[in-house]
# Entry
Amino acid sequence: MRVIEGLPEGKGLHIAIVASRFNRVIVEGLLAGALEVLEASGVVSSDVIVVWVPGALELPLAAKRLVEEGDIDGVIALGCVIRGETAHYEYVGREAVGGLARLALQLGIPVATGVLTVENVEQARIRSGLAPDSGAGKEGDRHRGKEAARACLEMVNVLRSTGGQE
# Structure
């Protein structure tokens, strides 16, 4: 039996991060966590590009352009959609995350989604590392920026192990 499991190793990888300016303070927390994981995994800062876009709906297009125009091994998309009084929250969250998933399949490159879809600001603060995580013992680290960075690195390495990326 052959088992393939990607490791969160980043030496020599080129990673793009697309980040939404909407709810920027939260997204900056996600970004800090993602950058922390990338650095700890061996990705050098000169091999990381960060692009800010207006909102979550713009994440897929920016990610697509970065992959098409550059030497990118994986993308991390960061954003935050907080439930409001209308259904707008559901449409934005669904379309942003769905667009990122379709992009990964279309381009054959890891696009890790660190887009929060939360009920309130407190949940967003916990999942972005801006507030203590009282539930961390039960689920582990719920910092979604860190989680997205680890997922991106692991998937790059899984695809390389299966011959899907060089």
